[in-house]
Amino acid sequence: MTQVSSQTRELAPEEADRAAIYGFVARLLQAPPTSADLDVIRRLAADETEFGQGLGQLAAAAREADVNALRDQFNALFIGLGRGELVPYASFYLTGFLNEKPLADLRVHMASLGIARADDVKEPEDHIAALFQSMEGLIDGSFGPTDLCTQRTFFTRHIASWAPHFFKDLAAQTTSPFYAALGALGGVLTAIETEAFDMTGREA
User: Fold this and answer.
1) What's the CA gap between 19 and 140, in Å, rounded?
2) What pairs with residue 2 in β-bridges?
3) Is residue 160 part of a domain?
4) Has keyword Mitochondrion (predicted)?
5) Is there a contact between 159 and 152 (Cβ–Cβ < 8 Å)?
6) In a domain, 191, yes or no
7) DSSP 26-81
């Protein structure tokens, strides 16, 4: 959803993993998975960490899922006839309406960081998938060099204030076990990142 440059840089393995995780979750929130996507997700292995357990639950849900059914579930959850069951935009969660001040603030911040919406994207930039793609780019250097402080500021301003509520709602819905597992995984990711940024903020 966001415009990415070719300025990726060498990353420490843990930073590369963070970027990949943001991109992975963003991809599944942007569009329903393809058959190839499902094949990959079904092979994900759990580990003892909370995030690893979330991956395991998503893999288990993928093994029970059908690609055509997931397409219908994605549409019911996020698109619908006029509106889906969930509205995955910061403005909506923070104000009850689309295209409100949180979106305007985000656009100003994005411009200052050199992030722009891709020309072929029509959705507002405060969609959860676009915000996660922005975090991916800030981590991997796609938008030019950035530091942890820049990442923390973007996350705190535009994700931490509402994404946990969205992921809780996604995890609680009963339309799709797969997307419920994705909601749980997204909730774990935002909690981990919030704790890590809080810790780095205290150390700064």
Assistant:
1) 6
2) 117
3) yes
4) no
5) no
6) yes
7) HHHHHSPPPHHHHHHHHT----SSHHHHHHHHHHHHHHT--HHHHHHHHHHHHT-S
Mean pLDDT of 180-191: 98
Rounded to whole angstroms, the Cα distance separating 122 from 180 reads 26
DSSP 117-163: B-TT--S-TTBHHHHHHHHHHHHHTTTS---HHHHHHHHHHHTTTTH
pLDDT tens column, 53-90: 999 999 999 999 999 999 999 999 999 988 999 999 99
DSSP 2: B
Could you tell me the CATH number of the domain that includes residue 61? Answer: 1.10.3480.10
Burial grade of 18 (CB within 10 A; 0-12, 13-18, 19 or more): buried
Residue 145 pLDDT class (50, 70, 90 cuts): confident
18/136 Cα distance (integer angstroms): 8
170 falls within a domain: yes
Which among 192, 155, 134, 161 has a CA at the least distance from the CA of 14? 192
